[in-house]
Design goal:
CATH class of one domain: Mainly Beta
Organism: Thermostichus vulcanus str. 'Rupite'
Helix content: 10-25%
Pfam families: SH3_3 (PF08239)
Keywords: Membrane, Transmembrane, Transmembrane helix
Protein name: SH3 domain-containing protein
Shape: elongated
CATH architecture of one domain: Roll
Strand order of the largest sheet: 6-5-4-1-7
Number of strands: 16
Structural class: alpha+beta
Radius of gyration: 50 Å
CATH superfamily of one domain: SH3 Domains
Distance between the termini: 163 Å
């Protein structure tokens, strides 16, 4: 009895072995699933495939311009011969949209107003490049620079014109071109001491002295009634008094008898 071993103590633990086997199998299956998930992440990215490069022919070299070719800053439109309208001559605006008056002979000069089609101006001088003219308006004496090449002749400004007479045939050598006389200053339509109404559509510039260079002291709008106080010696300017009592000089010929 003393040397015999117990039946239960000598038997193999089959239950424990089964539990261990199932646990190991479950862990192995779980590890396999995790490995399948992580494997794509661990693989290096595939090398990108590019299309085979195509060799392009080099572009043709630009053609060099002759070194002696004249270089200009733009078309010569607007450049005229100063001999056609020398300083002191009169011209009529022929540009359909009118002209812009600028403080300097340049496109970026300060804009000072506009001159409408058909208005008459006096040419004072030319810019160094001949593309700009400094002019004086006959309506209000304003001065400034406009683009050259936009003035036409004015009848009575000394421009040569052909005079046809019914008593002289075209073949007659005496029927030569005769220069028209220079237009005289417009007489004052309103006498001194009378009242007149401004008939100039753009109004009149009121100046301190009877000259275009006189200091500008205000403007008189169209249809305003003023009193004529005097007349300059050359008859080109009238001294007036406005309804508010302001006095000054305006160009003659722009008032109608009231």
């Amino acid at each position: 009895m003393r040397g015999r071993s117990s039946r239960s103590s000598g038997s193999f633990p089959f239950g424990t072995l089964m539990v261990a086997s199932v646990s190991i199998g479950a862990l192995a299956a779980l590890g396999w699933q995790v490995w399948q998930i992580l494997l794509p992440m661990l693989e290096p990215p595939s090398t990108p495939q590019f299309q085979q490069a195509v060799r392009l022919d080099p572009l043709p070299s630009p053609v060099s311009l002759p070194t002696n070719a004249p270089v200009t800053d733009g078309p010569a439109a607007g450049r005229i011969d100063p001999g056609e309208f020398p300083p002191g001559s009169r011209g009529r605006v022929i540009e359909p949209i009118g002209l812009a008056i600028r403080s300097q002979p340049a496109a970026d000069g300060a804009y000072q107003g506009g001159i409408v089609l058909g208005e008459t101006v006096t040419v004072l001088e030319y810019s160094a490049d001949g593309r700009w003219q400094r002019v004086r308006r006959e309506l209000n004496g304003q001065e400034g620079w406009v683009r050259a090449g936009n003035l036409g002749p004015v009848a009575g400004s000394g421009v040569v014109a052909t005079v046809n007479s019914p008593d002289v045939s075209p073949e007659d050598p005496t029927a030569a071109s005769t220069p028209l006389p220079t237009r005289a200053p417009a007489p004052a339509a309103v006498s001194v001491g009378s009242q007149g109404r401004v008939i100039e559509p753009i109004g009149l510039a009121l100046r301190a002295t009877p000259e275009a260079e006189g200091a500008y002291i205000g403007g008189v709008p169209m249809n305003e009634v003023v009193t004529v106080l005097g007349l300059s010696e050359d008859g080109r300017w009238q001294r007036i008094r406005r309804q508010d009592g302001q006095e000054g000089w305006v160009r003659a010929g722009n008032l109608a008898q009231e």
